[in-house]
Design brief:
The protein has 67 residues and is mainly α. It starts with a helix and ends in a 12-residue tail after the last helix. It is 46% helix and 0% strand.
Length: 67
């Protein structure tokens, strides 16, 4: 992870923090319905849990206090 990647990660976490402050939450992290139904349905809950963990966020999609 180079310096540019670290800066981009902090910017994204700051954007997420701003959205949380404004009332958005993990329940707003959705895909279009066509991706969630039928034989091609994606396991969104599991995917989001993994994504949050990779970002270093908690299970509710909240970044740490200090990014």
């Amino acid at each position: 992870w180079d310096e540019t990647g670290a800066i981009a990660d902090r910017i994204y976490s700051l954007e997420r923090s701003f959205n949380l402050r404004e009332g958005l939450s993990a329940r707003d992290d959705m895909l279009p319905q066509r991706f969630l139904e039928g034989p091609q349905a994606l396991p969104l809950k599991e995917m989001l849990a993994e994504y949050y963990a990779l970002r270093g966020w908690d299970k509710a999609g909240v970044p740490p206090e200090k990014c």
